[in-house]
Design goal:
The complex is a heterodimer of chains A (about 220) and B (about 800).
Chain A (H helix, E strand, L loop, with lengths): L1 E11 L4 E12 L4 E5 L6 H8 L7 E6 L2 E2 L5 H11 E5 L10 H11 L4 H14 L15 H13 L5 E5 L7 H16 L3 E5 L3 H4 L4 E6 L2 E7 L2
Parallel strand pairs in A: 3-8, 3-9, 6-7, 7-8
Antiparallel strand pairs in A: 1-2, 1-4, 4-5, 9-10
Chain B lengths: L1 H14 L1 H29 L11 E10 L2 E6 L6 H8 L3 E16 L2 E10 L3 H4 L4 E4 L10 E5 H8 L8 E5 L5 E9 L12 E4 L7 H8 L7 E7 L9 H11 L17 E8 L15 H42 L4 H38 L12 H26 L3 H6 L9 H33 L9 E5 L5 H13 L4 E7 L11 E5 L5 E8 L4 H5 L3 E4 L13 E5 H8 L3 H4 L5 E2 L8 E6 L14 E4 L8 E6 L5 H14 L7 E3 H6 L3 H35 L1 H9 L4 H35 L10 H28 L2 H6 L2
Parallel strand pairs in B: 4-9, 6-8, 15-20, 17-19
Antiparallel strand pairs in B: 1-2, 1-10, 1-11, 3-4, 3-7, 3-10, 5-8, 6-9, 7-8, 12-21, 12-22, 13-21, 14-15, 14-18, 16-19, 17-20
Classes of the chains: A alpha/beta (about 220), B alpha+beta (about 800).
The complex binds adenosine-5'-triphosphate and magnesium ion.
């Protein structure tokens, strides 16, 4: 599903040039659950953003379902993104002004789903994430764990083939964290490919494979058994 | 403490360059506008106070009241009244009569047309017009002495020191030499008494008309009279003394009438009007209505308010970003009072900075404003000392208006809530939205009004008034041997190429030309005013007026100069109540009810000889047997008038070398009727343009703030698949809603106001929905364009960055 080769991302500011990704090459097959680990600043988020088509690489090749997307423009990337990829962030990134229901509904609006279908779909997902009873609440009225469940619901509402999660448990206590990890595992078992960045060896054990990064490169891959 | 506040205030201004720029610029424009209007208002209310004895100088006015008449006064003075007052009342120190008249002056072989005012000798004892050269005690002692203003002295002689020089003046048929005895400083712009040349009343005392009026207590000859009372006199408020005085000289007016008519019910009295009251008292003819000034100040206040609102809304909008600062300040022990002071210090600093730039801007714009307002104003603190206080008051007011609400709201933040992010004032609370709506209500209202005024002006300019006013030149022949010049001139130019017709009249046409008339009885015996037009035989055809019955004047018929009249439709309807055909041959009934002197030979189609506020009044044309035309009318062939005017000028110079060739185009004279309307449309237009500009400036700032405050949200939405259009739409939507609401409020208000305004015009346009639709669409488009700049900027930003900065 994902095949990147010699991917480079360099941030240039006036004084310094940071090589965030240094000729990195990775493969991810459909249905896999991959964890990415590494010290702070090694380029994990940068990689995830590029995999999520939020950012473009400076160099190298990126095949997404066998299509070269490294040189896609913003419009094409956005189009591919909204139909295929869901995101979960460490800080949830829910929109404060919208209710739980409206937050989850948003991706469906942007992909042009009709309002009747949207309602059904959102309710289904909220049910699955066991947050249905909070559908009319605003994000600030929820606990962290609940907020992250809403974020996961929002990520999967479009039935994406790939979910990218950047430290999804980073802001949660262990029991809430485990709950989210169980959700992700369930999704993976139903066929969704998941790539997750984490600092927690415990969480990483939910995955099939761990990619360890250092200074913008992969240094080791552990296959979990 | 103050130093600390100011330091922080300066830093805040410097940090937020765009917002501070918008605020200072907007407020400067607002203050510039307001101070100009303020200057205008102060000027209007400052009339005539420069006379050192202003509190003792009064104008004699005649007051009419009773019957069906609105109470009101006229400033005409009967020739013998002022001297009689001086004789009869010991409190009257001086009585001054002023009689103005047109004249031609010859100085150093050049001729000019100007006006001369004849005044009683004590003129300079009463009025304060300092002489640069000459002596006020002797300047008007001899009948052939003349005082001239500096401006005219420079124009005629090229130098101001002209005492002793001779100026030749012609008011009748020949030039008469006058000796210049004094040169005054230029007349202040805020003087009701104005003159170019000032002569002695003695000079015209023997004029037959003046002598006649001196004996006839009912005859007016266009004169004004002033008295100066002795210190302590209360004569002006002792109306019964003045009434007794009048009873003595007008005994007939106080005899009871047997069968009083409507006119008999009008009670006439004399009153003394304080000189400072003249300019701003609309109940006496020629006085201005202070209502107009208040309207102007209100418009200017609205513009200023819009600028102040910008400051308020932007300050609130920025509060989201400042919440943390406030939280921290509170935690370290700042009290609410101190926070309020901090915010007010900021708005006052801004107000002072804006006032400084605003006043500079104002003085730069003053020439333009003078042109708009038709005034010669200058920012003179010595002449208008109250301006200083008004401006200081303005600065304080602006500081408070702009700063108080943000100060109260922001200082009320609770630190815990700030941390919990529960306070949501990010540029979208109800108060801010109402203010933005108000801004657009005002701007849209002003623009709609401007468009409607412009439509009405265009309508009045282009309406067929029943006379062909295009390509028609009017030449002034007053005081230059009227009888003799016209036939000669006519003969000289008549048969030239490009000249289609030549005629003449004893009356001019268009704005500022005056009318003649008399009372006639209608078929029910009621007295009605009729306008009389003395013109040449070919007047009607040359003017392009059409007859609907009867015939034109015929030079071959002697009877046509001894009582034949051509009347207009309005006269037929209102006085005769019959049809044009039946009106032919009818004789008009004069005011005494006698027939026999005026017989109708034709009926002309109505022609709007006055502005289109009036209905066409009853009118007739006649050819006087002793025809003394004061205006020659020449109809030119359409096309470039240059060569034809050159011919007219050349012929004039040959025939009348000692009088200036003065002409005007009749269509322009008619356009001049609408000077006031044009002025209002200019003022409303500028105010509307400036206010919508300021409102958009504020919108621009608010949109920028909204984009900043919503950076994260926009980022998330983009991650979830929102396109640039989505995001731009999201940000614009809120603002467009506000403007739509503003439009909905402004429309009925503007309609109502303009509907009311149009009622003053007998001939008026219908207000069409298109004006509203177009203005609304324009405002919304403008707002969308303004907001889009920010929205698109926010929408194309990389969402990754937005989400990184948490
Ligand atoms: N927009 C940017 N401009 C400049 N440098 C950047 C930018 N984004 C990331 N970097 C730099 O690139 C490097 C990789 O950053 P990245 O966010 O991918 O690290 P990370 O592995 O996700 O770290 P963490 O575990 O702390 O989240 C860092 O050195 C970071 O400072
Ligand atoms: Mg990271």
């Amino acid at each position: 599903m994902i095949k990147i080769r010699n991917l480079e991302k360099i941030y240039r500011t006036e004084e310094v040039e940071t090589v965030a990704l240094n000729k990195i090459s990775i493969d991810v097959k459909e249905g896999e659950f991959v964890a990415i680990m590494g010290p702070s600043g090694c380029g994990k988020s940068t990689l995830l953003n590029i995999l999520g088509l939020l950012d473009d690489p400076d160099n190298g090749s990126f095949l997404f379902n066998n299509i070269e997307v490294a040189n896609f423009n913003e419009r094409k990337r956005a189009d591919l993104r909204k139909h295929n990829i869901g995101f979960v962030f460490q800080s949830f990134n829910l929109i404060d002004e919208l209710t739980v229901f409206e937050n989850v509904e948003l991706p469906l609006i942007y992909t042009g789903v009709k309002s009747g279908d949207r309602k059904k779909r959102v309710e289904e997902v909220l049910d699955k994430m066991q947050i249905m009873h909070r559908r009319n609440h605003y994000p600030q009225q929820l606990s962290g764990g609940q907020q992250q469940r809403v974020a996961v619901a929002r990520a999967v509402v479009n039935n994406p083939k790939l979910i990218l999660a950047d430290e999804p448990t980073g802001n949660l206590d262990s029991s809430n964290g485990n709950e989210v990890m169980t959700l992700l595992t369930d999704l993976n078992e139903q066929g969704t490919t998941i790539i997750m960045v984490t600092h927690s060896e415990h969480d990483a054990r939910y995955s099939h494979r761990i990619i360890r990064m250092l200074d913008g490169q992969t240094v080791l891959e552990n296959i979990m058994v | 403490m103050l130093k600390h506040y100011l330091k922080i205030a300066f830093r805040n201004l410097a940090q937020q360059k765009v917002l501070s720029g918008i605020n200072i610029f907007g407020l400067s424009v607002g203050i510039a506008c307001f101070s100009l209007f303020l200057l205008y208002a102060v000027h209007e209310f400052s009339y005539d106070r420069f006379h050192t004895k202003a509190d003792r100088i009064y104008r004699i006015v005649e007051w009419w009241e009773g019957g069906e008449r609105e109470p009101g006064g006229y400033a005409w003075a009967y020739t013998p009244v002022a001297p009689a007052m001086k004789r009869d009342f010991p409190d009257v120190e001086y009585a001054i009569r002023l009689k103005g008249s047109d004249c031609i002056v010859k100085a150093a072989d050049k001729v000019f047309r100007t006006s001369i005012t004849y005044a009683d000798t004590a003129f300079f004892h009463v009025f304060t017009f300092p002489l640069i050269y000459g002596n006020t005690n002797t300047a008007l002692q001899q009948p052939n002495q003349l005082v001239i203003t500096q401006e005219k002295a420079l124009q005629y002689f090229g130098t101001a020191n002209v005492v002793g020089k001779t100026l030749e003046l012609k008011t009748d048929s020949a030039f008469v030499p006058f000796t210049i005895s004094g040169v005054t400083e230029n007349i202040p712009a805020n003087s009701s008494v104005k003159f170019n040349l000032l002569g002695s009343f003695e000079h015209i005392a023997n004029d037959p008309m003046v002598q006649q009026s001196n004996m006839n207590w009912y005859m007016t000859i266009g004169m004004q009279a002033f008295v100066q009372l002795k210190p302590g006199s209360r004569l002006a408020s002792e109306q019964n003394r003045i009434n007794l005085f009048r009873r003595k000289y007008y005994p007939d007016d106080y005899k009871p009438k047997k069968n009083p008519t409507k006119e008999d019910l009008i009670q006439t009295s004399f009153r003394l009007q304080p000189i400072r009251d003249i300019h701003m008292n609309p109940t006496i003819e020629g006085g201005n209505d202070p209502k107009n000034i208040w309207i102007l100040i209100t418009i200017a206040g609205a513009v200023l308010l819009i600028a102040c609102i910008n400051f308020t809304t932007l300050a609130i909008g920025r509060s989201a970003g400042r919440a943390k600062e406030i939280g921290v300040r509170k935690v370290i022990g700042s009290q609410r009072k101190q926070l309020i002071s901090q915010f007010l210090a900021e708005s006052f600093l801004l107000s002072v900075l804006s006032a400084a730039t605003g006043l500079m801007l104002g003085s730069l714009l003053l020439p333009l404003f003078n042109q708009l307002a038709d005034r010669k104003l200058s920012f003179s603190f010595s002449r208008f000392p109250e301006l200083i206080w008004l401006l200081i008051g303005l600065i304080v007011l602006v500081g408070f208006l702009a700063g108080s609400y943000p100060a109260l709201v922001l200082s009320a933040f609770k630190p815990i809530e700030v941390l919990k992010k529960k306070v949501r004032v990010g540029g979208s609370n109800l108060f801010t939205r109402s203010l933005v709506t108000l801004q657009f209500v005002l701007s849209i209202g002003l623009i709609i009004s401007t468009v409607i005024i412009l439509q009405q002006i265009a309508f009045m300019r282009t309406k067929n008034i029943g006379l062909n006013k295009e390509n028609l030149v009017m030449i002034n022949t007053e005081h230059i041997g009227n009888k003799r010049i016209y036939p000669l001139y006519k003969q000289a130019i008549e048969n030239n190429a490009g000249i289609l017709g030549v005629t003449a009249s004893e009356m001019g046409l268009g704005a500022g030309e005056g009318l003649m008339g008399a009372g006639y009885r209608d078929f029910k015996g009621e007295l009605k005013g009729v306008i009389e037009y003395p013109g040449d035989y070919n007047y009607l055809n040359t003017m392009g007026m059409s007859l609907i019955a009867g015939r034109y004047f015929n030079p071959a018929l002697a009877s046509d100069t001894t009582g034949a009249v051509i009347v207009n439709e309005a006269l037929v309807q209102e006085l005769l109540g019959t049809t044009p055909e039946k009106a032919l041959g009818t004789q008009l009934l004069n005011a005494k009810g006698n027939r026999g002197t005026k017989t109708i030979i034709g009926v002309a189609r109505n022609f709007n000889f006055e502005d289109l506020k009036q209905k066409v009044r009853p009118q007739f044309y006649y050819r006087p047997s002793a025809f003394q035309p004061s205006r020659i009318f020449v109809r030119l062939q359409a096309g470039d008038p240059g060569s034809k005017l050159a011919l007219l000028n050349k012929t004039w110079k040959k025939l009348v070398p000692d009088a200036p060739f003065e002409y005007s185009f009749v269509d322009e004279k008619f356009d001049n009727f609408y000077k006031n309307e044009t002025r209002w449309s200019n003022i409303a237009g500028w105010a509307g343009g400036i206010s919508i500009f300021l409102a958009c400036l504020g919108l621009f700032g608010l949109a920028a703030l909204a984009a900043v405050n919503r950076t994260k949200e926009i980022g998330i939405r983009k991650v979830l698949g929102a396109t640039v259009t989505h995001v731009a739409g999201l940000l614009s939507k809120d603002f467009v809603k506000l403007i739509t609401v503003a439009f909905a409020i402004a429309t009925p208000l503007a309609w109502y106001m303009m509907h009311y305004w149009l009622q003053a015009y007998a001939w008026r346009i219908n207000i069409t929905w298109q004006v509203f639709a177009l203005t609304g669409a324009f405002a919304i488009l403008l707002a969308v364009a303004t907001v889009s700049v920010q929205a698109i900027k926010a929408a194309i930003a990389n969402p990754v960055k937005a989400l990184r900065n948490e």
